[in-house]
Write a structure and sequence with these properties.
Blueprint lengths: L4 E4 L5 E5 L3 H14 L7 E6 L4 E4 L2 E3 L6 H12 L3 E6 L10 E5 L3 H10 L6 E4 L6 E2 L20 E2 L3 H7 L5 E8 L3 H11 L4 E6 L11 E8 L4 E8 H22 L3
Helix pairs in contact: 2-6
The protein binds cytidine-5'-monophosphate.
């Protein structure tokens, strides 16, 4: 928004209402146009949505992730000029324009596709709510109903983000932390244990932000030690603010490494 200039107006009054300086209008357009191209030449790999972990041929374990945050990130990155590969669990969302979408179901499939597409990626954002546990041997036939109690023995899934942290190279690695309490401490612990550059902390369990919602309110925890709260906005707006901070962070990390 370019505000009007202030001064003597044609109607005889004095105050705000004059056409803004043409130079000011051109500068505003220029800065908007630049903002839209600041990811040109970059490849961004994003994961989104939940995973589904089968218990038998007809049942599965999953979570409440809608995939909206990851899809908003993919849309924002593409709008800013990046080549975007989006690896998505099962969601009910239209593929964003100009984005390559690879659909997966389980954590194991997601890991395989992430590793396959990692090579050219400059920025990796793991917004998927990957299941932490699965049944490593899924029965071939439907489990029969019985009167007796049954129990499930679950094994941990591969931690994709931790594996990415071990083979990070020059990439920027961004994880998500969906927590119901101690958000900043948990996000910082994840940043360190998984060797991330940024963790997006998301308080979930409330009514109108986080899972399923179109709005979000997050805290960014950075490798530099900074903590940046992003106030409530649409997931698309939050996605742009995350990329603004990712680009700033990269400059800060390069400056710290003397590059
Ligand atoms: O440790 P926790 O699962 O809470 O960490 C969440 C972050 O780790 C998210 O970025 C999520 O995508 C990633 N993750 C993963 N593989 C898993 C579990 C979580 O990449 N098996």
């Amino acid at each position: 928004m370019v505000e009007p200039g202030s001064g003597y107006l044609a109607c005889g009054m004095t105050g705000p209402g004059r056409l803004a300086d043409p130079e000011e209008i051109v500068a505003a357009i220029d800065s908007e146009a630049r903002k839209r191209h600041d990811l040109e030449g970059e490849t961004v790999l994003i994961t989104a949505g939940p995973t589904q972990e089968p218990l038998d041929p007809v049942r599965y374990l999953t979570n409440r992730s809608s995939g909206k945050m990851g899809y908003a990130l993919a849309e924002a990155a593409a709008a800013r000029g990046a080549k975007v590969v989006l690896i998505s669990g099962p969601v009910h969302l239209a593929p964003p324009r100009g984005v390559e979408v690879i659909s997966v179901r389980t954590a194991v499939e997601m890991r395989a596709k992430v590793m396959e597409n990692l090579g050219p990626a400059h920025i990796v954002i793991k917004s998927a709510a990957v299941a932490d546990f699965h049944l490593s041997k899924v029965p071939d036939q439907k489990v029969k109903k019985t009167a007796a109690r049954i129990s499930l023995e679950l094994d941990p899934t591969p931690d994709i983000l931790a594996e990415l942290g071990r083979k990070k190279d020059d990439r920027l690695l961004i994880g998500f932390a969906a927590e119901t309490q101690n958000l900043v401490q948990e996000a910082r612990r994840k940043l360190e244990s998984k060797n991330c550059d940024m963790v997006v902390g998301n308080l979930v369990g409330g009514a109108d932000v986080g899972f399923e919602s179109d709005q979000n309110e997050v805290i960014l925890v950075l490798r530099t030690g900074e903590t940046i709260p992003l106030e409530r906005a649409s997931k698309r707006e939050i996605a742009d603010r995350i990329f603004d901070q990712v680009l700033k962070l990269r400059l800060a990390l390069h400056a710290a490494n003397g590059r």
